[in-house]
Design a protein that fits this description.
The chain is α/β, with parallel strands linked by helices. It folds into two domains: about 150 residues, ATPase, nucleotide binding domain (Nucleotidyltransferase, domain 5), CATH 3.30.420.40; about 180 residues, 2-Layer Sandwich (Nucleotidyltransferase, domain 5). Helix content is about 40%, strand content about 20%. It is built from 15 helices and 14 strands. Strands 5-4-3-2-1-6-8-7 form an eight-stranded mixed sheet, with helices on both faces. A six-stranded mixed sheet has the order 11-10-9-12-14-13, sandwiched between helices. Helix 10 crosses helix 11 and helix 11 packs across helix 13.
Amino acid sequence: MKILVLNSGSSSQKTCLYEIGETLPFDPPACLWEGKIEWDGEFAAVTVNANGVTQRDRLKVSSRVDAVEHLLTTLWSSQTRVLASSSEIDVVGHRIVHGGPHFEDPVLITPEVKSAIAAASAFAPLHNGAELEGMTIIEKLLRVPQVAVFDTGFHQKMPPQAAAYPGPYEWFTGGIRRYGFHGINHQYCAGRAAQLLRRQLNSLRLVTCHLGNGCSLAAIRDGRSIDTTMGFTPLEGLMMGTRSGSVDPGILTYLMRQGQLEGHEIDDLLNQKSGLLGISGVSGDMREILNAIKQGYSRAKLAFDIYVHRLKAGIGAMVAVLGGIDALVFTAGVGENSAAVRAAACANLLSLGINIDTAVNARLSPDGDVAALDSQVRILVIRAQEDWAIAGECWKLISVRG
């Protein structure tokens, strides 16, 4: 079965093509073809196939829709093509950032499902709008089933004490609740951790740390999310690249009173000018923060220390909710690639049974274990595989459907 995955963002478009046989493989395979578009005034597309052939294009198009159509047609009509025609594609899967209060499991896309996703656009207008646009493009180019996989779905059944905010009860009944994000990868990492540990998923208590430009933790017990750090929006929780994470809401009302800031200005401040970038004044990229620390830049050191402090506090909170921990998982760009962040996050956590092997941690690449031999808790580094997870969900849904 050939499965095309669309991961549509507000300023980028990632696409992968996978082929899955009669059974899902133990290890995630490389995709047959992958493409990416980024736009910042103009469109730049890159496609790569499994043979390593790469094509780069500066697109002379006027709209995002035209750019995405161009990207998809390179699957069967460019130097990176891997298909004889579009008819070889069996199903298309879409990452949907926000499923609102209704969606937990992946679903076949119907007009009713599209309407519900559009209704949830109030929670994530840029992302959900781009994802709906992707569905329309596929309808134009292909005649295949489409599947929606929801980033909020894994957290949908968090217990109400974790999901509800302590505001008026009408918030909760009106849909203002903690939804959580990065759920596709949190769920994938939980299953992958069980594979690597050769344990049943329902026997494990896991804390998964998705640390990229956006960051979130999840507490996972019996294969289900029971708490997470992101909430109604992806702004809550940990310090991130350019996002503040959780702050005292009184700061915002103070700023509005003192500076007459409008809502959109506060939104921009918290999402684009805070986090590692806001504190350091250098960058929201952890690699540049670490380089600045080596050069003696004190604000970069402060940014790193705040980041780690909040990460450790979050890990402790997740362990408390779980009542213990069997494995700690690091994933996504920073989690997979920054040995310094992993080491700092695990420092002085022996009371939780967490003991990292600094030598192994310094040289390991995903997927593997960086815990010391005597550590009571395993410490895993797992490569984020959102696109593969979406492909797997499509394969399961279409296989069952026959």
